[in-house]
Amino acid sequence: MKVLVINAGSSSLKYQIYDMTTETALAAGRVERIGMDSSILVHEPHHTDEVTEVSEILEHTTAVRKVLDKLTDPEVGVIKSIEEIDAVGHRVVQGGDLFKESVIVDAKVKAGITSLFDLAPLHNPAHMMGIRAVEANMPNIPQVVVFDTAFHSTMPEKAYMYAIPKVLYKKHKVRRYGFHGTSHDYVSKVTAETIGRPVEDLKIVTCHIGNGASLTAVEGGKSVDTSMGMTPLEGLMMGTRSGDLDPAIVPFVMMKEDLTVNEVNSMLNKHSGLLAISGSSSDMREITEGMEQGEPNATLAFEMYVYRLRKYIGSYVAAMDGVDAIVFTAGVGENSAVIRQHTCEKLTFLGVEIDPELNKIRSKEPRRISTPNSKVEVLVVPTNEELMIARDTYRLVTEAK
Ligand code: AMP
């Protein structure tokens, strides 16, 4: 069975096709600048070099058609015809409290995703465009949606409620949902496999730190708390997002600077975080370089980032009353030995001890970086959200047959 995984954004569409008999990715790729001039399609087949094509792709239906053309191309394709694709799986960011697990797409599911547009205005409308684009190109194919929020649906009320008037939860569903759930789920399972213990017996802090960043307390395989909130703005300091701040700052700044709702939203989501503090970059590679060269703004950005990360790890250890493993994943977590080192070196109160040599190793495999003496296992696990989406799609479509 072959499954096509799609992650549709408002002007982009990422894809990956899997052969589920072996769980191997046959090809991946992305379409960027949809709806703009000079749209770009990058196709990366497993058997040959990647190809890049520049053309005009005005909307998602054309983007999906171009992807299907590449997948079936005699030279760079990986399948002979579209009929070889048995199902399509989509990433959907916000499932609200409507969707606690992945589901097969039908009219009710589409209405549900649409009813959540207010909660995820940048994401859910784009995901619906992806679903409709697949319908237009492959009318009878089963489609499955996998929600970023679903893994966090096990959070207890005390973790997901905000201490504000309850009517806001009843009327507008204001609560913590959490994101990156597919990744936190995947890396916690791989962590358990890697250390050879059942996930049901473990307390794990999963650190998904990429451009967006979130931490999750995973107890017995279930999310019991997570740092992102009703939106992906809360929690850690990120590339361009502020993370936690005193909520009173928002009306104060709006008043003092005469900002609109959209302007303050844009400030907190796109012009804050590492970018705002360093004044130069949202990319941790450049921040680290600046810090190593003694540049004061980059140094402050780096220190704030690590300090918050450590505070969150500490608070989740307290939330679970213990920890067996801490795991790093995503762009920064998988690649930055310096961030891992600085984060772990002040977790000695937990008995954390990492091996500097193991920490330096670069690999695509899950690996331990803690010493045999460490009281807490520390791991690096490359995340694979696409594989999780393909697995859920395969399972649901097979069960429905
Ligand atoms: P992601 O959102 O998971 O794709 O992560 C992207 C981010 O990972 C980039 O913006 C970089 O800041 C970061 N990143 C990638 N490679 C490295 C590296 N070698 N060192 C530090 N940060 C990195």
Topology, element by element:
Blueprint: E1 2-8, E2 13-19, E3 24-32, E4 39-45, E5 51-55, H1 60-71, E6 85-92, E7 103-104, H2 107-115, H3 124-137, E8 143-147, H4 157-160, H5 167-172, H6 181-195, E9 203-209, E10 213-219, E11 222-226, H7 249-257, H8 261-270, H9 273-278, H10 284-292, H11 296-320, E12 325-329, H12 330-335, H13 337-344, H14 356-360, E13 367-368, E14 377-380, H15 385-400
Parallel strand pairs: 1-6, 6-8, 9-12, 12-14
Antiparallel strand pairs: 1-2, 2-3, 3-4, 4-5, 7-8, 9-10, 10-11, 13-14
Quote the beta fraction. Answer: 15-25%
Q: Total number of β-strand segments?
A: 14
- Looking at the overall shape, the CATH architecture of the largest domain is 2-Layer Sandwich
Element-by-element helix/strand order? EEEEEHEEHHEHHHEEEHHHHHEHHHEEH
User: What value does the average pLDDT take?
Assistant: 97
Would you tell me which CATH topology of the largest domain applies?
Nucleotidyltransferase, domain 5
Helix-strand category:
alpha/beta
Bound molecules: adenosine monophosphate
Principal-axes geometry comes out as globular
Count of spatially separate domains: 2
* Strands ordered across the widest β-sheet: 5-4-3-2-1-6-8-7
- Relevant CATH superfamily of the largest domain: ATPase, nucleotide binding domain
At the first level of CATH, what is the class of the largest domain? Alpha Beta
Helical proportion?
A: 25-40%
Distance between the termini: 13 Å
Unreliable residue runs: none
Q: Mind describing the biggest β-sheet? A: 8 strands, mixed
Number of helices: 15
Radius of gyration over C-alpha positions, nearest whole angstrom? 21 Å
Main location: cytoplasm
Protein name: Acetate kinase
EC number: 2.7.2.1
Active site: 148 (proton donor/acceptor)
